[in-house]
Amino acid sequence: MSVETKEKAKNQVAKATSGNVALASNPWSKLAAELDRVLGAPILKFAKDGRFALSDTDQVPDGTRCLARVDLVQIGWVKWRDNVQPDESRRDPWQFNMVLPVTRLDTDETFNFTASSKGGLRAIGDLVKRYGSRLARNEGGLPIVELKADSYKHRTYGKIYFPRLVVTSWTEDGQRPSVEQDLADEIPF
Questions:
Q1: Structural domain of residue 61, as residue ranges?
Q2: pLDDT for 35-56, tens place per residue?
């Protein structure tokens, strides 16, 4: 990915805020949310071997429960420099991409789950559809999901893994994290 594209993507993804419920009396959660907004949260990818990976060595365990910030999902196109993907394959340099901010419930860490594969796009897309259906029924809240890996057997490529975002529950509408509202206070100068 070119430096220019990374910088542009970072700026577009910078809206992903911490899923923590930032209390007005807690300056640390406000600071963490602001840092996520400015710096962008770490990228979480689904690897071809069925892991949710932050890097080659760091991963998020299968079954980890997260708050999925479907209200902050982003879609767009990413252009890869020199037509080369991270796996060194040559394809169309423009790839459709979706970004879903997720916050681990056990550690309060926020990541941007980024997907461009059919399986990843389908997982995020299905979650967006469910969220949209709830809003159409005047139901609120955000989904609590488990990060899961599933697979199928492809006749040419063998075992193919794909991500699943399994909804386990929904937040109550009144408990919806509102870091944006909390940070919208006026600072007198």
A1: 3-176
A2: 766 677 888 899 999 999 888 7
